[in-house]
Write a structure and sequence with these properties.
There is one protein chain. The chain is mainly α and 507 residues long. The chain has 15 helices and no strands. 75% of the residues lie in helices and 0% in strands. Residues 1-24 form the signal peptide. InterPro entries: NarX-like_N. Residues 29-112 form the NarX-like N-terminal domain.
Length: 507
């Protein structure tokens, strides 16, 4: 029996059995259905890599693996597979959607299998008609596979199942978009509908970027919650890092000034795109598994060094200090003190604090910043970020303000900033406690105290402006004097050194 005959027999058997199982998981089922979208693009990409002469034997084998996985998964999604924790299609709407996939799948699989050996001859000549057929055939299969995912998400909701189906769907779609961006890049490199594929590449690159942000930060309007699972955050840090390496290659194609230039750039970058897409895809696959189920069993702190802890603490200190300077600049604007310079400073600090908070919560591998190493720190930092969001909204009122800032607004900012500072300081203290348990001789105390000195400078400016504005003048005078004295004492400690509680020299 020929290779295609075996595939055709398997496809024909797809609707023979329907075995629903109450023990199966909607989350896993939606994830596997979402993976089907990715496979339509991956097998197309692998076919195109063969046509470009890039590791033809390896990519042919990988293409056959993708075809096999698609076929096996399609069978499981239609008939159910309790061993894989997959529901079978349990409604007419879902079955009709999968029948549409079956109708498209047979001819497309045959197209790939029948032509993979002959699409590029021994002289490097490529059968453009076959590439056109692949380009035309993969998208309807992708679209219909996406319909199936939507029907399954709706079915899960109708069943009253508590599942983060929308988040799993969106995260799963990211796998597909990585493969699709590669496919479109390779179609451009092959000279197939270059202008059209450049437009599609731009759209899908933007969709990946906005979706990446959405499944981390959340999208309340769409019912997507902020990511709050420690292990998933650490894995998404890997995705962010690898996307940062992959994206510039795509942008080089998108920045081309002509069709000919786009083709040439895509052709030159094809090996790098294929290479860099691998780690990005692998990181995203691992992240999707955690979006489906994150049991919280990772232990990032086990691999953290003193240096990585120190960098976290420095960034915590920066967040506290810069947020306080933002408040000080707001108050200077409210008191009509150096308004232009204070406005510039406020704008810069608003952006910097937001970036620093994002790095503290999500991590930033490119800058060697770890994501929070415990779930408690994740929860505290998310709470602090919520407070920062509220304070940021108040501070933004001073940017370009055309009327005087009221005393009520000044008092509100002062109270909000105190709450944020206390919360961030609590997080920093817990970080310090954790690092001292792991590294009793941790030696970054001088840096920490120096950071606190910077914060106190900003606090001194804040208290002076609050007194000038008439906001709780008496108590803020006391706070000014107390903070000034603490700053001077800290300055002496840094210069002369201070013994630790155990008698050793701490700094």
């Amino acid at each position: 029996m020929s290779t295609w005959s075996r595939w055709r027999s398997a496809v024909a058997a797809l609707f023979l059995v329907l075995v629903p199982s109450a023990d199966c998981s909607w989350g896993v089922t939606i994830d596997v259905a979402g993976r089907q979208r990715m496979l339509t693009q991956r097998m197309s990409k692998e076919f195109l890599l063969v046509s470009l002469g890039l590791d033809p034997e390896g990519n042919k084998a990988r293409m056959m693996g993708s075809i096999n996985l698609f076929n096996v998964s399609l069978n499981a999604l239609i008939n159910g597979n309790p061993d894989l924790n997959i529901f079978g299609a349990q409604s007419d709407l879902v079955r009709t959607a999968f029948q549409g996939v079956v109708d498209l799948w047979g001819p497309f699989a045959q197209l790939l299998i029948d032509n993979v050996d002959g699409v590029r001859d021994g002289f490097g000549n490529v059968d453009v008609a076959v590439l056109d057929a692949v380009a035309a055939g993969n998208v309807p299969l992708l679209v219909q596979s996406n319909v199936c995912v939507g029907r399954l998400v709706d079915a899960a909701k109708s069943a009253g199942t508590q599942t983060n189906g929308l988040v799993v769907d969106t995260a799963g779609r990211q796998r597909m978009l990585i493969q699709r961006m590669c496919k479109e890049s390779f179609l451009i490199a092959s000279g197939v509908s270059v202008s059209t594929n450049v437009g599609l590449l731009k759209s899908n690159e933007n969709l990946f970027a906005t979706s990446h942000e959405g499944i981390i930060l959340g999208a309340r309007w769409a019912g997507v919650s902020t990511l709050n699972k420690m292990c998933t955050l650490h894995q998404m840090r890997e995705v962010s890092y690898n996307f940062g390496l992959f994206r510039p290659l795509i942008n080089q194609i998108l920045n081309a000034q002509s069709v000919a230039e786009a083709l040439q750039v895509a052709l030159e970058l094809s090996p790098q795109i294929a290479e860099r897409s691998g780690p990005l895809f692998g990181a995203m696959v691992a992240a999707v598994s955690l979006y489906v189920n994150d049991p919280g069993e990772c232990d990032p702190s086990a691999t953290m060094t003193e240096e990585s802890w120190s960098l976290l603490l420095v960034n915590m200190g920066n967040a506290i200090t810069l947020a306080q300077f933002a408040v000080a600049n707001f108050l200077q604007i409210s008191n009509a003190v150096s308004v232009q310079a204070s406005t510039v400073g406020l704008i810069v600090e608003l952006n910097t604090v937001s970036t620093t908070m994002a790095n503290l919560i999500q991590g930033n591998k490119a800058e060697n910043i770890e994501a929070p190493p415990t779930q408690e720190l994740v929860d505290l930092l998310l709470a602090a970020n919520s407070l920062w969001g509220e304070l940021e909204g108040e501070l933004n009122q001073a940017v370009g303000a055309t009327s005087a800032i009221s005393l009520v607004a000044v008092t509100k900012v002062a109270q909000a900033s105190e709450g944020l500072r206390n919360t961030l300081t609590n997080v920093k203290d817990k970080m310090m406690s954790s690092v001292l348990q792991l590294f009793p001789e941790f030696g970054a105390f001088t840096v920490q105290v120096a950071g606190e000195q910077s914060t106190m400078i900003a606090q001194i400016v804040t208290f002076v402006n609050l007194v000038f504005a008439g906001s709780s003048a008496d108590s803020n005078r006391i706070m000014y004097n107390t903070t000034r004295d603490a700053f001077l004492a800290g300055h002496v400690d840094i210069l002369e050194g201070k013994p630790a509680a155990d008698g050793g020299l701490r700094f």
